Amino acid sequence: MPPERNNLDLYDEAAKDWWSDDVRWIRTLKNMVPGRLSYFDDIVDWKDKAVLDLGCAGGFMAEALDDRGAKVTGIDPAEEAIAAARAHGKSTGRRIDYHVGVGEALPYPDESFAAVVCVDVLEHVRDLGQVVCEIARVLKPGGVLCYDTINRNPLASFVVVTIAEDVLRLLPRGTHDPKMFVKPGELLGHFDRAGLIAGGMTGFGPRGIGKRGDPIFGRLPFSGIIYMGTTSKAPRAAPDALASSA
Fold first, then answer.
1. 127-155 confidence digits (pLDDT tens)
2. How is 5-48 classified by DSSP, letter by letter?
3. Would you state the torsion angle of the CA atoms of residues 194, 196, 197, 203, taken in this order, to the nearest 10 degrees?
4. In angstroms, rounded to a whole number, what is the distance separating the alpha carbons of residues 174 and 4?
5. With a cut of 50, which residues of the chain have pLDDT below it?
6. What separation, in Å, do the N-terminal and C-terminal C-alpha atoms of the chain show?
C-alpha cells in the first residue's frame, strides 16, 4: 500500500528524538539550517528583531535565530514537537516563545514581527494563499519574509519523493505530496495579491557530504527542485509623502 502523502503526524511521532541527533531525517532537517541562514543573514539583521518562525517543529531554526540575537516566537501545529522545542529551549536557558497553531490563522496582532521565517512549510499547508495573507498581516511595514519551498515539476517529484524518501530515506516515506509543491510563479502571485514585494530567489540543496554521510546544504544556481528567497512588506509612507500625494 502506498504511504499517506503529506503526513505531518511524523513530526509528533519523532518529537522525543528531535534533539538526540540519532535519527537521520531529523539530522537532515537540522543540517539545512546553516545553508538557509547563509543566504538569509545577508538580507536580515536579526539582532533585537521580533521574528516569527512559522512551522518551527522542534526548534532548530528558532534556536539559530535566537543565537543571532533575535526575539523569537515559534509556532507549529505539531504539539509534541512544540513540547520538545520548549523543553530544549528551557534546558539551554533560551527565551523563545512557542505556540501551537497553523499558518492559516496566526494568533498574533497585526504588524507584530519584523521578520517571518517560513522554511519547509509552504508545500505542506492547506491554504497557501491564506497563509501568505496571514504572514503579510503580522509583518511590520518594511518587514521581511524569508522562505523556502519545493518546485512543482517532474524532476522535483522524482528527487524529493522517489530518491530522498523512497530510496535514500533522507526523509520518511509520505512526508511530501508532490501535488502540493509550489511553482515560483504561483508563489509570486500570492505575494502580489497579499501586497508583498518579491525580493531575490535562489536554488537550495545539497552541496557536499559531511559527518555520518549526511548532506551539507547551501545555495545552488538551479531552482528547479528547492528554491528559497525573500519578500517584504512595503514601508509605511512618511507623513510628508502622504501630504504631498493628497
1. 999 999 999 999 999 999 999 999 999 99
2. SS-THHHHHTGGGTTTS--HHHHHHHHHHHHHHHHHTTT---TT
3. -90
4. 5
5. 242-246
6. 64
